[in-house]
Design brief:
Elements: E1 2-3, E2 47-54, E3 60-68
Antiparallel strand pairs: 1-2, 2-3
Length: 81
C-alpha cells in the first residue's frame, strides 16, 4: 500500500489476488522472499509504504509505514531494499 503522506490514505498497489509473485506458501518450513517494484513514482517525491500480510485464516497484519524518495538520473535505477 502507498500514500503521499505518512498518516494519509493508503492505496493498494498490488495483491496476492492479482499478482502470482505475491501468493503465499501456506504452511512451509522454507523461507519465502516476496518482491514488488513500484514503477509509478516521480523523482524527488517522498512516498510512504505499508506491507499487509494475510495469513491462511484471512487475518490481515499491517507492517510499516516506511518512506522512500526516488532520485533517478537518466536511465539510472536505484533499488531500495
Amino acid at each position: 500500500m502507498r500514500s503521499n503522506d505518512q498518516n494519509g490514505n493508503y492505496q493498494q498497489l498490488a495483491s496476492y489476488e492479482n499478482n502470482p509473485e505475491l501468493e503465499g506458501q501456506f504452511n512451509s518450513n522454507t523461507q519465502t522472499k516476496y518482491k514488488f517494484t513500484d514503477e509509478t513514482v516521480t523523482n524527488d517525491v517522498t512516498y510512504w509504504y505499508k506491507l499487509v500480510g494475510v495469513d491462511v485464516n484471512g487475518v490481515h497484519t499491517e507492517h510499516g509505514p516506511m518512506s522512500a524518495t526516488p532520485h533517478a538520473v537518466g536511465n539510472e535505477v536505484t533499488t531500495i531494499n
